[in-house]
Records
---
Amino acid sequence: MIQFLMGILFLYLLFMSFEIPFVFKSDTGSVGFFADTLPKHVLLENEAEELYTASRPSKDTSASTYQTFSRAPERRMREFKRVSGLFFNESALDDSESNIDEFSVLHKIAKDAWSVGKKVWDELESAETISKTQIEPNKTKSESCPHSISLSGSDFVNRSHLMVLPCGLTLGSHVTVVGKPHWAHPEDDPKIASLKEGEEAVLVSQFMMELQGLKTVDGEDPPRILHFNPRLKGDWSGRPVIEMNTCYRMQWGSALRCEGWRSRADEETEAVVKKWIKLAFACVEYACIRLPDICAELCFINDVVLCAVDGKVKCEKWIRDDDEHSEESKAAWWLNRLIGRTKKVTVEWPYPFSEGNLFVLTIAAGLEGYHITVDGRHVTSFPYRTGFALEDATGLSVNGNVDLHFLFAASLPTSHPSFAPQKHLEMLTKWRAPPLPDGHVELFIGILSAGNHFAERMAVRKSWMQHKLITSSKVVARFFVALHGRKEVNLDLKKEAEYFGDIVIVPYMDAYDLVVLKTVAICEYGVRTVAANYIMKCDDDTFIRVDAVMKEARKVREDKNLYIGNMNYYHRPLRHGKWAVTYEEWPEEEYPPYANGPGYIVSSDIAQFIVADFEKHKLRLFKMEDVSMGMWVEKFNNSKPVEYVHSLKFCQFGCIEDYYTAHYQSPRQMVCMWDKLQNQGKPQCCNMR
């Protein structure tokens, strides 16, 4: 791993050696020492710059600039109704549908989603629909879940390799699987199977057993609460291994690998591991902007826990040293790994899985983690990670090179799962949003959310939305939610909006490709209803340090238009894979400079320009909302200069030290980070999920 990180550092330095001459080329339109060396669309951070101490006043309105909107009574009515005031001019689109260059397929999809959403919203507001919902809570409370579930191997296959656990797990629950691994076969992945001349074929045999959460986001895989992956023929390590991990919102945590050595809660080991992780993290911190895909997992690394789980070791031992069981010091072991020195090992007791032989595997839920036994012998224990409760494990999935004969789950909870809205929402007045102020608002924060993200919204209300700048209405924050495909979710969402007063419903049917419409709605609300100087967009799994974000915006002169975030330059569209972008969707070879979607800020003039172009159907829409914002700002920049401000502290992947924003934070992590910020007075991560 250290060698890999050092390689990344070398590539980064090599890349920068080519790019530095380009970055420091002359620009005649700037002033000052750095102004003669920077491209006009880039503004480097100057941490030593003195911050403004007073709130930034409203921009001067003149005939040559866009005027800041004032709040009008009709806009206050829209605020009261919790419905976005964004206007979708369908007739303008109908008259121009023949113009393929000007109106993309995405515009037509948006038109259909808007039309259907309007009908759904009208139905929700009807008295007949509301009266029917009064019976639903009582009906839900009477439902119960089975205490045990059993499936044959054929039934499991017919159910798409998924055993549903309706109420999840609880303390003492256990799941048993009886199966037989396949014999090893040649690897068919061309990247892995590529061999040097004369070498034998690469043989593989592995399977994946996962406890999954069934509450998914459109376009994403379900969260993996426990990923258990035995690799009978090994991997890059060259010997059989078992790897365990978690995955939330498509982002993997730090893996726990059992390679045959018995785990030790050794202080020397912990110190050495932490030392090397900090060194490696420091080496690649500034490379993450250039290599975001490679560095994504590193941003989750914050600590390493090496102690036992419920008194059991994390990994049992099944190999021994050449020197008759005498164990070398962990410091020497890490040094050997760093320089690439390997040691041959012999088997002391068999790897728990073998090709063509039956196994009986049991996962048991303990106080501190999951305990896994194979054929009655403890193999490994995986500690619970912050953000995943036992009741979240509502499905068991098994895939790979294995035949299953029988599955059995017992000691299951019989009560309704806690991801129901009534379990997540705390209907307390202290969580209600303060009313819009009559006076000045410096920053408006629009939070993208999905209809069924009740837990995520509640976590935001209980964490950074309790900042004094928000509770005093100097900063305003609102959730922006489109309509869900399930009627019961929309009904609960409407009740939530009416009670908390912090939800703006954008009346179209939600879809991953149409998230960009919520961004436009945030701009419309920010300039017309709130009349804020700055508009910030973030996600409902983003933790924000409100005061730090405000200070960052105040660094730019008040007469300048700004675009602040974790900037991406010269990024190319992916043309293959799950997130592929076709040439019809994006014909250019590069994206414009854009800030990563989890958190960025634009000035009000830019936001007003976006809304005006949208309502005239002059705004180009793209399914990636952060790229869309970069495209819109670039268009605005052609007529009026914009200062692009880049900061790695708007973290794209997880959380880093002294963050401004932290992404992919689970509800429990949000509350944890807020507690640390309040109690310790400094930003700290809660990275273990």
---
Amino acid sequence: MRVAVLVLVVSVSLTEAARCVPTSSPQCYKNSTKPDEDFICEWDERNPEKSQTHILHIWDTVKNSFRTHVKCSKPAQAYLHLEELGTPSRKTDIWVQTQVGNLTCNSSKTSVILECMVKYSKPQIIRMKRSAGILNITLDKPTDNKGAIYEIRWRKRDSEWQNTTFETKDSTIKDFHILHLQNRTIYQIQLRRQAILRSHPCKDSLHALWSDWSQMVDVPSEIRRRPVIRCVEKNPENGTRDIHLSWDAPLPEESVGGVKYILKLLDWPCHKTKKKKQTTNQTYNTSITYSEARISIIARNKVGHSPERHIFIPALKHLNYCNSDMPSNIPKADNNTCLEWYKLEDGETRPKTVNSSNNILLKDIKNEVDHFVRHYYFLHIKRNKQYQTVVMCPFYSKQKAPINGPANVNISDITHESAVVHWLSIPVVEQQGFLQHYVIWISGQGNTKFHQVPANKTSFLIKDLHPGVSYTVSISGRTEAGNGPNSTVNFETHSKEMGLSWQDQTILIVCVVALLCTIICSVAARRLKLLPDVPSPVVDVAEFRCPEEQDQRWMIEEVHEFILLLHQDPGKRRENVTPEQSTLLQDFGLVVFEEEDEEDGEGGVSDLSSIKSCCYPNPSYRGQMLQLPEPFHMTDSTSRDNDTESTYRDGLFFETRVLECDTTSL
């Protein structure tokens, strides 16, 4: 029984002792090198028991006495006031006593010189700027504004760390460092720092502490390009224009860590400074007045910003005259109104210098601007926190007649009864007032006609003219102060015969159209083969053989003479024979060739060698050609000496001679 009781007591003691686990060795430090700085002590708890308590013991090794005992109010942390420690430059032992129930346990002792125990806060990266592979880092200064020893480490994503150390000076407001990185590559960096101890007992001390590592930061590449902006402007309404802006994000390596867009707007002419807007979206909506607006935008990431992109939104097109729907004036000028005016010498171009004020109205500036020069003004108001344009209008302080007449006056489309006159508008700089209309005088045959043409027209049709008459046309511009100089041109109408009437022109056009339609239909019919093909002539090869297939020897024409005797009754009187009857073979359908030259007296047969043909006669021509139709009758003919007629047919040559004895030789 005694043994059992002893074993029980020992086991209970061991169980209670197991409940008391000592903490880690305490670490005491101050946050700066200032001599009047209090200290903080920290340790790690290793026992999960919640009912445990901690007491921090400070032992002076020189005097062999406790300096202080601090009961911890916070878990794993205690504050040491400088007044309780006395002189912190002496060596001190520090440990933590842990109590769990009736049991106590102590941590390991730490021997330090408290004055040398300095631990800075972890560094904060204020700004980074990256350009051409160089990263400039700006860091916050320690609380004592002293220089420090820094350790920086960097790496590409998912690669090994590289590190180096550098030291900063006391005289700077911020700490700086330059790090060389590979261009267009994403990096990650971290930093920590350590105090530089200059007091005598700390020079050879190894107790200076590193701060915690700063938060790991992604380092993107610099943004090289300006944002590409798309601007959509809605139709103006109620004195405002709704503007929708959108743009694309930078490249992925430039967008790491997030991108912010900074917009600056100048949409109220009486404020010379731009409003600044910051957004992370890629769209922006705003409203502007009818006047000119300027917007600039930059994209900013952790290492810098892009070049600035400027957007110019022009004013609405300038009016030539005041709009009657707009109020002519505002009775009161205050901070909610803005009057904007400038010279508009050419009627279109807005000058670089623009006047604006929220203290005066149009009536106040009319006497201050140049006379006879066109000006333009906008009157804006601020209503319900929105800017609006209530008036936009050109104006003159004083007006007079134009300096010059219209330029380049010419006549076109002249007919026998009409013509068209053209001209160029008088430039605004030469108008010297609001142009009301153009005045046209047409003079001819002692009469003059007068016409007025609206100021926005540059041509006029002159009617009811007389054919073949010379006319003179004079044109001038008119303002409320009177007419300007004339521009003159002369022309003459056509005679009535020279021109085609509209009926003749219509007939001519119809004929031309019909001809074109006929040609088109014919071509289409041939191409589409709508008509049957024209048959080709059949040539008998056996009947007609070309010279290449025949014997090429010369053939001699045979000439035969025979005499036809005409029986005549002696009792009948001989009748005269007409020339038509004297031709013997004409009645039989033969072709007769008359020869003018008769050189020989043997019948006047021409040389047949001069007669050429693509084919020679058929060899059986003798039997064919000498058969004359029956009956053969010879009419009387008048006797003529050496009267010869020649006939050629079917390859035979016939010569007919009428002799003195009233016989015919064939």
